[in-house]
Amino acid sequence: MTIFEELKSIIVDQMGVNPDEITMDTDIIKDLSCDSLDMVEMLMEVENRYGFEVDDSDVTGLATIGDVVKYIESKI
Fold first, then answer.
1. Is 25 annotated as catalytic?
2. Any idea what the CATH number is for the domain that residue 12 is in?
3. Which of 4, 47, 62, 75 is the most buried (most CB within 10 A)?
């Protein structure tokens, strides 16, 4: 499973969105109606799965699914 597919699975499980709505260009807040709690939960799951800590200062740069995928790739 690719990082994109794993991230997509996390989002579908946590937020109950249609998987067909999620692409690399999907805006996490605008397109998925993700609030700050949703974002924290998603990033906590990313930390658990990939074994690194997301720095709070990095979160503001994570606007799209693609941004999160690239961030994960840079950390593993």
1. no
2. 1.10.1200.10
3. 62
- Contact (Cβ atoms closer than 8 angstroms) between residue 8 and residue 16: no
Over residues 40-66, mean pLDDT: 93
**Residue 63 belongs to domain spanning:** 3-75
The predicted model scores a pTM of 0.91
Confidence of residue 9 (pLDDT cuts 50, 70, 90): very high
- Catalytic residue, from 31, 35, 56, 67: name it: 35
Q: How confident is the model at residue 3 (pLDDT cuts 50, 70, 90)?
A: very high
One-letter amino acid of 60: T
Q: Give me the number of domains the chain comprises.
A: 1
